[in-house]
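Researcher: Good morning. I'm working through a list of sequences from a screen, and I'd like to move beyond sequence-only analysis. For each chain I'm collecting a predicted structure so we can compare shapes side by side. This is the next one on the list. No need for commentary yet; just the structure.
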Amino acid sequence: MPASTLLWTVSGRQRTPQRDVQPTTIDGDARAEQIWRVADDFQKLRLAELMAALSLATDLGMGQPLEQALRTCLIAIELAERMGLAQDEISDVFYVSLLRFLGCTADAHGDAVAAGGDEIAARRAIAPVLGGSLPEVARQVLPKLGAGQGPFRRAQLIAGLMTGGLERAREGMRAHCEMAEQLALRLGLSAGVRRGLGDAFERWNGTGTPKSSSGNDIHVSARIVFVARDAEILHREGGIERVRVALRARSRHAYDPAVAGTLLQFTGEVMAAIEVNSPWEAVLQREPQPHPWVPESRLESVLDTFADFVDMKSPGMAGHSRGVAALASQATVDGKSLRRAGLVHDLGRMSVPNGIWDKPGPLTDGEWERVRLHPYYSQRILERSPALRSLAACAAMHHERLDGSGYHRGSYRAEISNDARILAAADAYQAMTQPRAFRPAHSAPHAAEELEAEARAGRLDADAVHSVLTAAGHQPRRIGGWPAGLSDREVEVLRLLCRGGTKKEVAVVLKISPSTADHHVRHIYEKIGVTTRAGATLFAVEKDLLK
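Model: Good morning. Structure tokens for this chain:
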């Protein structure tokens, strides 16, 4: 099925089915699907909202503060309108500005190698001079290359950049643009958007990448977004005057002179567009009509693209999120929500440099702190979008453990939902069966043994592990053993006690003698280190024994 069938174009004001309305198309391709307006009773999700969420992930990957792409979008829309672009062209500008760095995971590993491990810091350093001259780039980037490393290592990195860095950068940009176009096609975005993403690093004078296009051969959306993104960064770092200086210096070199001239003429008015309390809301309000929508039934296809975008960041991660989603969804009766959470659980990985993810040895304490925060960023991205908000809490708990040893919150048993327990087990199993920089992939039987060991140690939920291993095709053993060495019968007695049962009532329910019931209770108290029913109940709640 063509990717464009993901979207249904509606105005946002349509209230009833309009069977006599002429069909509209997603893009200008002759092959584009014809899409009918749909009724309000068909659940649908706004495409701009989903793409805005994805733009937050690209902000992290490019070393920028969250909402940087949203602010770029506001500037780009102002420029496009002042230049008199048609509505469909402005729509292209809208989506290209949100997704200009949709391919940023394609070259993350290579960038990290060239930058000494931290491609995010390198991208942050180059951002103000991306549209500048080579000498300007060198002055800005070389002093920051390999920051924090020894002088010999820094000298190696600088030498490598000077000898082959330009060609490696071009190759990375080619991969970046190719992946962005492919993902945009899968998302059903227009031909203009795809062209704009493919031209993202072209320069007006023909010295850009990947096709060395020049002048008006570069798609207009790419020309506008190039200027808008630079303007957002330069304005944040040095105000309007720094923006003006760059516009004059880069016009006819990196920048289309018409775009640069428009921003020079209306600098104050255009830059005022980003002075808003909520760039998210402002961007959604500025999207040109008609708004593209995604049928709810196609949301998972969109989230498949989110998953592949993230997993491309590190060589060993390809297919990870899809694998987690498949295991988690098969491990429960109603798996739709868990599959979706699995597809997006790792969006926050974008916040961590590849030098950490791809490190062959142990992580330092500081590196672990960055790793421990990636579920937090997953939650922050997902919570911004009403369409994805219901997935946020579960997705952000995929590294939590029942004993409180997980991250980022260090949640305990009662705080971790059943879905989150399944997702954690699925994530752990899928990760173990894939290679990582610090170890080869485990065999499936070895991964199953490790997962069962985690359950026996009280870190993963035994039922969740059983379900995930069954979904993975194993015939898992029952994971024996209760906390504090309690027996099955003692757990039965403990549950009855915690629910208010007396020793005599316990004896009746379990069909044992009162003296045997008393014997069990004394042994339970001794094993778990308490002397009262209240203490026993707290223990049972903490150890999640009351199911």
